[in-house]
């Protein structure tokens, strides 16, 4: 792997990655790898940069609160890839890279004379990770595809929401992030394979396929059993009890006691041990058939107590349970604090900036959030001048709008 290292260290600190993507799917793949030390050189168009610099609902000082998160641990350079000067500079940069990650529409790199045939000729060890809506092949490959479309095509949207309403969405851009995660995994696999073969390859991560990979047994359920999953709201059909239950203090507690032994412990906590012997509830299958009446019975019980009392009883009887968390609860929770699940860095405009820490945790070579999202073109001199040795005239030509 490349000997260049990013500021700081980590298990991937000998890997240099050029990120040519924008918005979320490709950049999320880079975020994961950058968290573990890879040097991420983000290539942005001059002027406005990545649209993510403007995204997000809340914008103190007119600036995005999302950008410092998705662009953490990255260096920003500007290149106009629509010009020959910008394309030639990118090709020079590829000589020094291990990986290129991009999420343009399929065929865009080829139009810029930056396809894998060209880039691998320059650097045979290069890995090109491509994250798109539909993948690089097939009749839909040239279509524009956002994460929401991939969620719909991959099956997630249809089964999400209330059974008496239209399909809903998860409250985050889950399709993009799943495809980015698959792209990061594929990149790591390709880096490992390169150690054996000495050659790079293309990693093709499609959003719809990333979503599809999480759809459990949906396909054989239909093909073999003729069953189509429908929207079921807060429950999974035939998995009971596992639901959100109300409490006397108007809180919500999620209790998951669908395993036989756990259900028996729940009935002991309820002081209703006979329920575990009742044929309607004694087995996993029976509870699935009696799901609604069982949920009603548990809800009637939880309504008589505060959420604190319910949770204390669940902990005493080793029944999985918890509150429904929002950001305030996360910031106040001692378990989050003990595991440093949220890390705080200083931001040039916002001051103390809390954000989710690196996951997963490694015992010997952990990842780290080393810095927040950079200013546009902040590292032009470091990368284009110092690394590539370009003079001011060539830098200007490559970065001009």
Which whole number gives the mean pLDDT? 93
pLDDT under 50 segments (min length 5)? 1-7
Tell me about the biggest sheet?
Answer: 6 strands, parallel
Judged by helices, strands and strand pairing, the structural class is alpha/beta
Helix content: 25-40%
How many separate structural domains?
2
Number of strands: 11
Tally of individual helices: 17
**CATH class bucket of the largest domain:** Alpha Beta
Give the CATH H-level superfamily of the largest domain. Answer: Crotonobetainyl-coa:carnitine coa-transferase, domain 1
Described by its quaternary structure, the protein is single chain
Q: CATH architecture of the largest domain, please?
A: 3-Layer(aba) Sandwich
Principal-axis shape equals elongated
For the terminal residues, how far apart are their CA atoms? 34 Å
Content of β-strand: 5-15%
Q: Provide the spatial order of strands within the biggest beta sheet.
A: 3-2-1-4-5-6
Q: What pattern of helices and strands is seen along the backbone?
A: EHEHEHEHHEHHEHHEEHHHHEHHEEHH
The CATH topology name of the largest domain reads: Rossmann fold
Rounded to an integer, what's the Rg over CA atoms? 25 Å
